[in-house]
């Protein structure tokens, strides 16, 4: 009986070792947000575009965006891999929000590596459309076509 128990324990140990870890184990499960000042320092060291998220603690759609969209592993991976993500609290950074012309929240902005405006998305967005928008900006497709045509092209492929 003791040999059977030892064999069962060994079998369980071998089986557990063969089970792959969940996709988010060991990988970033959150967006690696930087402050505006931290992102400014990155500007000279990287050719990445900036993904800027204006939010506030009281904003219900900001909480929904964070809970639903910014928790999607595809969105998290794409932003962390291809953009410099910048998180700005518009209540704490009022001058910065005014400089960008933020009038409502949430407000998503895309800037080129030098900090020049490319595009913006005012309001809430689901993860699927955001992934399309991220790809549109990252691949520089905005230089050749509008977003609607890009989405149609993606559906064909």
What does this structure look like?
The structure is a single chain. The chain starts with a helix and ends with a helix. Strands 2-1-3-4 form a 4-stranded mixed β-sheet. The chain has helices at 2-18, 36-43, 60-69, 73-82, 94-100, 127-138, 147-156, and strands at 49-55, 83-89, 107-111, 117-122. Helices cover 47% and strands 16% of the residues.
Describe the SSE topology.
Blueprint: H1 2-18, H2 36-43, E1 49-55, H3 60-69, H4 73-82, E2 83-89, H5 94-100, E3 107-111, E4 117-122, H6 127-138, H7 147-156
Parallel strand pairs: 1-2
Antiparallel strand pairs: 1-3, 3-4
Helix pairs in contact: 4-6
Task: Estimate what percentage of residues fall within beta strands.
Answer: 15-25%
Q: Distance N terminus to C terminus?
A: 59 Å
In N-to-C order, the SSE pattern is HHEHHEHEEHH
Helix content: 40-55%
Total E-strand runs: 4
* Widest β-sheet, arrangement of strands: 2-1-3-4
Low-confidence stretches: 1-27
> Tell me, what's the shape?
globular
Structural class: alpha+beta
Radius of gyration: 21 Å
Number of discrete helical segments: 7
The main sheet comes to: 4 strands, mixed
Whole-number average pLDDT? 84
